[in-house]
Design goal:
Blueprint: E1 12-14, E2 30-44, E3 47-54, E4 63-66, E5 70-77, E6 85-88, E7 114-120, E8 126-132, E9 142-148, E10 162-171, H1 176-186, E11 195-198, E12 216-219, E13 224-231, E14 237-242, E15 247-252, E16 255-262, E17 265-267, E18 272-278, E19 285-293, E20 305-311, H2 332-339, E21 360-371, E22 385-390, E23 393-395, H3 402-407, E24 442-444, E25 448-450, E26 455-462, E27 471-475, E28 480-487, E29 506-507, E30 509-512, E31 516-523, E32 532-533
The structure holds copper (II) ion (CU).
Main location: secreted
Domain Plastocyanin-like: 39-150, 164-314, 419-531
Subcellular location: Secreted, Extracellular space, Apoplast
């Protein structure tokens, strides 16, 4: 996942049927938060730099609510650039104005200005996260969102003794704006992360690192902890584990799943997983670690980040704590084995609603194309510019935000409502793609419209254009059912036979397998706009 992902977009603009909507009545609570965006000095790997933070923290503050609550978050920008904040995985029914992506649902909050988001929690329960949504600002300006069950309800699993967030992120010694601007200017891949972090700390294995640069998770022998794991790393899928401890995954993307007992997870960028972990080993130090799953020729930093699980009590800690038995960096089988186990809880209390009759179906080829740079040499392969595309369209960010353009019916010059439901060229997507590797994508801002209430199916087809790799896809405003994945080219007659329409996982982010496909389904029940990106 090292390749540059120019943001890509697919829009769903639902027709607004406001009369038909019923307001939910809930005994919801209101919360107020103040976020101050500002440059803050941090030192990691013996490098000191100023970086954009919220309230001076890395990771930023946690938002804690109960299901159905509303949070008002006043964001004041004391930084140097315009920034927005996105509430990743919060569906915000009928409230797209507070979703956050820059130039999609709002203009950036300029330095010296502020904006209050009204974040409406509805069906989500578990863990999500928030992040800045302008250029690469999300690398440092991000934090957890914890959504507890409503008052009077409990978890559909044993009540944990304590809850902790475990946020995985990337550390860059360089200035992030500089990295982003260089990459955008030259069309080359952005520089790689210098380290990964757990709760802001890189652990013990990098340069200038030791026990004091590692996050310590204090545990008492015999107790069970709920760890809310968030992958906020920049475009890197991660294997994660705890040495000599199994754990049980109970939720993903703020929806409960059938418990999976395992000694590792594979978590895609943007995903969250809640795991129950019991401190049931000899009191000592144990490493918790995360390192990339990178089954690709694209470069990445593959070093592990570590934290220390530290039992209470008196004992002599080992000189080198045991390290978890994580799958190899390129172990696609291990990644698939974990991901394929995920099932929705799907019981009477947490039912599923999987569309079975499809109204709108979209087949979407994902490629990392190249744009030729006439008369000049760009920094990508063969002097070209890298440009990711969906159905051969590379997204171009409009100057007016799309939601405003739609609302005022002034789409001209902002977007065109013609995102194709099929790729323009059918080729052997996962085979020898021949000339397609340099096929110039069309640059545009294209929207697809979906009727309110329609059952939508999207088949994502990975391609070998550029480097074949696993592509994380994320949809704003919805969780969707991941009904199937497979390898090779999607086959309309055979592939759908393997669909799980009984208890597929309900998620907001998936990894489309390398050399493979993934199918999602959802009801278009959130009028406004939805942004899809990878
Ligand atoms: Cu999101």
């Amino acid at each position: 996942m090292g390749l540059k992902k120019m943001d890509l977009i697919l829009w769903f603009i639902g027709f607004l049927f406001l009369n038909g909507l019923v307001e939910l009545s809930t005994a919801a609570n209101i919360h107020h938060y103040s976020f101050i965006l500002k440059e803050t000095s941090f030192t990691r790997l013996c490098t000191t730099k100023n970086m954009l933070t919220v309230n001076g923290m890395f990771p930023g503050p946690t938002i804690t609510v109960r299901k159905g609550d509303t949070a008002f978050i006043n964001v004041h920008n004391d930084g140097k650039y315009g920034v927005t904040i996105h509430w990743h995985g919060v569906k915000q029914p009928r409230n797209p104005w507070s979703d956050g992506p820059e130039n999609i649902t709002q203009c950036p909050i300029q330095p010296g200005k502020n904006f209050t988001y009204e974040v409406n929690f509805s069906s989500e329960e578990g863990t999500l996260w928030w992040h800045a949504h302008s250029d690469w600002s999300r690398a440092t300006a991000h934090g957890p969102i914890v959504i507890l069950p409503p008052v009077g309800n409990s978890y559909p699993f044993q009540t944990p003794y304590q809850e902790k967030t475990v946020l995985l992120a990337s550390w860059f010694n360089e200035d992030l704006k500089q990295i982003y601007d260089n990459s955008t200017a030259t069309g080359a891949e952005p520089d790689l992360a210098d380290a990964y972090t757990i709760n802001g700390w890189q652990g013990v294995s990098y340069s200038c690192s030791n026990e004091t640069t590692a996050y310590h998770l204090q545990v008492d022998n015999g107790n069970t902890y709920l760890l809310r794991v968030i992958n906020a790393a920049m475009n890197i899928e991660m294997f994660f584990g705890i040495a000599q401890h199994n754990f049980t995954v109970v939720a993903q993307d703020a929806a409960y799943i059938k418990p999976i007992t395992t000694n590792y997870i594979m978590i895609s960028p943007g995903q969250t997983m809640d795991i129950l972990f019991t401190a049931n080993q000899k009191p000592s130090y144990y490493f918790m670690a995360a390192r990339p799953f990178a089954d690709t020729t694209a470069p990445s930093n593959n070093n592990a980040t570590t934290a220390i699980v530290q039992y209470s009590g008196s004992y002599t800690p080992p000189l080198t704590p045991p390290f978890p038995d994580l799958p190899g960096i390129t172990d696609k089988q291990a990644a698939d084995n974990f991901t394929n186990q995920t099932r929705s809880l799907a019981n009477s209390e947490y039912p599923v609603n999987v569309p079975t009759k499809i109204d709108k179906s979209i087949f979407m080829a994902i490629a990392v194309n190249q744009i030729v740079c006439p008369g000049q040499s760009c920094g990508g392969p063969d002097g070209n510019r890298l440009a990711a595309s969906l159905n051969n369209i590379t997204f171009s960010t409009p100057t007016l935000d799309i939601l405003t353009a739609y609302y005022w019916n002034i789409s001209n010059g902002t977007y065109t409502p013609d995102f194709p439901s099929r790729p323009p060229h059918i080729y052997n997507f996962t085979g020898d793609v021949g000339n397609s590797t340099i096929y110039n994508p069309v640059v545009g801002t294209n929207v697809t419209k979906v009727k309110y209430g329609d059952a939508v199916e999207i088949v994502f087809q990975g391609t070998n254009v550029g480097s074949a790799e696993n592509h994380p896809m994320h949809l704003h405003g919805f969780s969707f059912y991941l009904v199937g994945t497979g390898s090779g080219n999607f086959n309309a007659t055979n592939s759908s036979q393997s669909y799980n329409l009984v208890d597929p996982p309900l998620v907001n982010t998936i990894g489309v397998p390398k050399d493979g496909w993934a199918t999602i389904r959802f009801f278009a029940n959130n009028p406004g706009e939805v942004y899809m990106s990878y």
